[in-house]
Amino acid sequence: MFFKKYWMFFVAVIYILLPVDLISDVIPVFGALDDSTLIILGLIKQYLDYRKGKEKNGV
User: CA-CA distances (angstroms) from residue 19 to 6, 15, 24, 32, 38?
Assistant: First the structure.
């Protein structure tokens, strides 16, 4: 249950710890794009979970 709730966090930590990037950080704009995509996806998931919780509580 714990892993199911925080799976995106664990994926992000593993991605940060691994020395492999999807796009090399040497490329000026696209290098940070893959890193920021993970942050944006995490925020979207957190928002959707928040909205789902509000609907469940009837607020």
Answer: 22, 8, 11, 14, 16
Amino acid letter at 21? D
Pull the structure tokens for residue 46. 């957190």
Please report, as a single letter, which amino acid is at residue 17.
Answer: L
pTM: 0.53
Please say whether the beta carbons of 32 and 2 come within 8 A. no
Mean pLDDT, the chain, rounded, equals 76
Instruction: Give Cβ neighbours of residue 11 (< 8 Å, ≥ 6 apart).
Output: 38
